[in-house]
Structures are given as structure tokens and as C-alpha cells.
Amino acid sequence: MLHLSALPRGSAAFGVPVGPRSMIAITSRRNASVARYLAAVRGEDRSVVLLDGLHLVGEALSAGTPVQHALVAADAQQSPDVREIIRRLLDTGVIVASASAAVMSAVSPVRSRSPVVALARRPESGPRVFARRTRPVVIACDIQDPGNVGAIVRVAEAGGASGVVAAGSCADPFGWKALRGSMGSALRLPLLSASQAAAAVALARRHRRRILATVPRGGRPVCEADLAGSFAVLIGGEGPGLSQALIADADECVSVPMEPPVESLNSAVTAALIVYEARRQRDRT
Fold first, then answer.
1. Can you give the residue range of the structural domain that contains 103?
2. How far apart are the first and last CA of the chain?
3. Taking the mean position of all CA atoms in its chain, how far away is CA 283?
């Protein structure tokens, strides 16, 4: 039996008394802790993020993200990987509970339930998105597929971008699907949400960013555009792409050359090509 040597203050919020005791077992979906997980799965509690799986929980711990609570499948606790993540959680002072298969199936939203899920405080980045002056900022405009949003965050971090802005009707980059798509990058890269794409553009201009709009055809080829300076690039959503108003307001339009009859690329692929071309140009100077 694993033991919690000293539960942190505020444990009662998860139905756990403060003080030393064995790791509690949760077998009912009606448990108060389970309700918080379900609210996070549905996106109803925006103060926390759901970390689903060993990889994301481990990435959160490594990134210093404040993890509040974790559920571990009772039938997976003999696995060396699971035991190691339990040790790391307990060493950090996280409340850890053992959960039945039924509870884990409820709180782990993936098709094959994960052995560990956790709740962590939602990261806050704010102006840090624009902090690295010589690095691009990606503004994802109305991209509704959370997997695409997560992939954009992943390639933005990998390619050395300063940050990502999720604008308009964009999927929440801290939703569980987007978090899984980013493979933990959302816990490290500065992110910001804007209710409207135009507001995100205005904010980028206040931070002295040149605005580039991606269009399928007719823009300057990406390899010919000046991407070595300080800019923000607008990536449009699935199907309609960027609005005409956003395109007209941009300083320059850029396009990724495509052989016919291909008409468009996935939004994350477009973001990756631009971020990496910017990196290539920076490295060349």
C-alpha cells in the first residue's frame, strides 16, 4: 500500500482529509473528485487542465506545472512506469488516489483508458507570448479542430517560435484533446487566447510585430518572404481559411507553393513550414 506522508493544504477540496493516511480508493463515479475531472473533460472548469496519460503527467511535472490531484488505475499500479510516476507525484506533494476501472473509464476520455490522469492548474502566459523579439508568433484563427491546434503548438515550440495565440473560435489549446496533440508543448510554450482574431492582430501590432497572412494562392512564396525579422503569422481555420478583412489588414500575404490539383494544406503543416523557414533564415544571418 502506498502512503501519503503529508497531504498539502486544500486537500479537502478533493474529499481527502488533511493529514497522513493511506492512498484512498475511489470506486464511485459520484465522488466529488470525479466530478471535478468530468468538469475538466467537458471544458466546464477553465481553472484546471486535464492531463491524460503517463506522458502528459510526466511532462507537467518536469515543466513545473502545479499538479493538484491524480487518479491512478488500481489495476495498473504494479507497472514500473506507473509506480515511478506515482513516486514523482507524491514527492511533489500531489494528492494521489487509487481509482477503479469504472472511475478511470469515466475520467480518461480516450478510447483506451489511461492508467493515470491528473488535474493541474491552467498555465498563464499573457504578454510572454511576444517576449522573444526575433522569433515568430503564430496566431491560430478560428481553427476548431483541437488536434490541429495542439499540433500547431507542438511545431511552434519545436521550431523556436515565441508563442501561439488561439484567436476567435479556435479550440482551447488547454483542452484535453489539444493538450494530447501538443504532447506537452502547451505546458512550456507561452500561449494566449483572444476572443477575436482582429484583437490578436492589434495586440501583435502593439508589440511591433509585422503581420503576415497565409493564403492558398497569390501570396509571396514562403521561401522568398523575409521571415528573419519580428513578425506574427495568421493561420486560418479548416475550410474557409482567413477572412478577407484579416487578409486586407495584413502587411503581407504568403503562400506555400503547391502542385495542382492540391488547393490547401493542413493548418499545422502550414504553420510548421513557415516557422521552420523563419528558423532557417535566422540561422543563416
1. 3-121
2. 58
3. 27
State the DSSP code for 186: G
* pTM of the model as a whole: 0.88
Distance CA 90, CA 69 (A): 10
- Given 121, 148, 167, the domain boundary residue is 121
CA distance linking residue 11 with residue 261, whole number of Å? 58
Between strands 116-121 and 67-73, the pairing is: antiparallel
Band (114; pLDDT cuts 50, 70, 90): very high
Report the SS3 class of residue 145. coil
Residue 139 · residue 232 · CB < 8 Å: yes
Backbone angles phi and psi of 228, in degrees to 5: -85, -15
137 and 117 housed in the same domain: no
3-state helix, strand, coil in the chain (%, to 5): 40, 20, 40
Domain CATH number, residue 61: 3.30.1330.30
Query: Of the candidates 121, 149, 184, which is a domain's last residue?
Result: 121
